[in-house]
Amino acid sequence: MCLVKSLYGLWRVPLLATVMLYGCSTDLSPERSPKTQKQPIFEQKGKASWYGPGFHGKETASGETYNQNKLTAAHRTLPLGTEVEVTNLKSGKSVKVEINDRGPYVGNRVIDLSRAAAQEIGMKEKGLATVKIEADSVRKKSRRCHGSKCEIQRGREKENCP
Q1: Domain 41-138, what architecture?
Q2: Mind listing the pLDDT tens digit for each residue in 129-140?
Q3: In whole angstroms, what is the distance from residue 110 CA to residue 148 CA?
Q4: Which strands form 142-146's sheet, in the order they lie side by side?
Q5: Cβ atoms within 10 A of the Cβ of 149, count?
Q6: Is it true that the peptide bond before 30 is cis, omega within 30 degrees of 0?
Q7: 97 touches 113 (CB < 8 A)
Q8: CB of 69 within 8 A of CB of 114?
């Protein structure tokens, strides 16, 4: 009888061990799995500025009309049409913008944001901020068309389209 009582309580040990191990298991759900977290293929840190009223309504390097109220930016080397996320390192605020112009050409700045984008990350009043620029993909080519004239831009080279 004493042996039966001692064996009867042993079923609790494996059950308790299973519950403890399950509670300590690693969560590999898709949103937390390291393999699903995208690493940016382009990352740059530096000073950002913004531009607006003097350029509003003028043509950008992409051929679009500049609108200071849209979420766009100018960058010296990223292909036109590339979407980037710009994060103000001081405030932590970020905004997604499309590169549609070239610049900035003042000082050691790395990106010129539209007025709307600058406002989104809280740098409109100061005019300058230290930012991180990230792109998940870089556009290979962008097509510009003006009437019957069309060009493909690759980096800084341009060639006419048929």
Answers
A1: Beta Barrel (2.40)
A2: 999 999 998 876
A3: 34
A4: 142-146, 149-154, 157-160
A5: 9
A6: no
A7: yes
A8: yes
